Amino acid sequence: MPEGVSALGLVLGGDPTLYAIVRLSLQVSVSAVALAALVGLPLGAFLALVQFPGRTFLVVVVNAFMGLPPVVVGLAVYLLLSRSGPLGFLGILFTPKAMIIAQALLVIPIIAALTRQTIEDLWVEYRDELTAMRVGPFARVTTLLWDARFSLVTTLLAGFGRAAAEVGTVMIVGGNIDGFTRTMTTAIALETSKGDLPLAMGLGLVLITIIIVINALAWGVRRVGELHAG
User: Fold this and answer.
1) Tell me: the pLDDT tens digits for 110-137?
2) What is the DSSP letter of 19?
3) How many other CB atoms are found less than 10 A from the CB of residue 145?
4) CB-CB neighbours of 9 under 10 Å
């Protein structure tokens, strides 16, 4: 298949256009997951360990937002960052920063919900011990987050996989500008529509490879965690 051979040649030959797109995609997704982790990890642990009015409602909302349509997130961020929006003065619409914010908002519910479930399960095991030691809420959060670190790395990798595979959100807020905001997924969509199949397939090969590596890392981290627990 000529297109397949050309696509493989682009990947193995270090095509500068292809790798510039890959580099930007990884920068945006890694930054988005890091930002989402700063919010999602403590939020999930807080929901797991602290009882307060409205907690059940908040848990339901966080779980529901795991399935929030990406284009809705993109639209919301677009409205916030547009010139007439409340954050329009920042001037970051159609920039990588806007893409990072959009992806982070998409990933936060995933990280928060998975963290909550992990910490809740761990709390069952440690409840009596930490209660007897009169450990406060903040110390409980930090203690259990650290103890669940292997499971939570898997959670972060799941968030990264979700961010890296996203199209609609980054297309809306990033604009798919060549050499500036074009990611692997948006470039695949564009190049396919243009008929440039080798570049689209080359980017697809790289994206599939990244997803496989992420899943392999997640499996490896789980195994390490099981051995550590044992």
Assistant:
1) 999 999 999 998 888 878 787 778 777 7
2) H
3) 20
4) 12
How large is the angle between the packed helices 96-132 and 16-49, nearest 10 degrees? Answer: 30
Structure tokens at 214: 């992420």
pTM of the model: 0.88
Of 154, 146, 145, nearest in space to 222 by CA: 154
Of the candidate CATH numbers 1.10.3720.10, 3.40.250.10, 2.120.10.30, 3.65.10.10, the domain formed by 2-223 belongs to 1.10.3720.10
What's the one-letter identity of residue 185? T
Identify each DSSP E strand in the chain by its residue range.
none
Angle between helices 149-164 and 137-147 (to 10 degrees): 80
Note the pLDDT tens digit of each residue in 190-216.
Answer: 888 888 788 888 888 888 888 888 888
d(CA 123, CA 25): 37
Q: How far is CA 126 from the centre of its chain?
A: 29
- CB of 99 closer than 8 Å to CB of 181: yes
Q: Determine the Cα–Cα distance for residues 57 and 14; give it in Å rounded to an integer.
A: 50
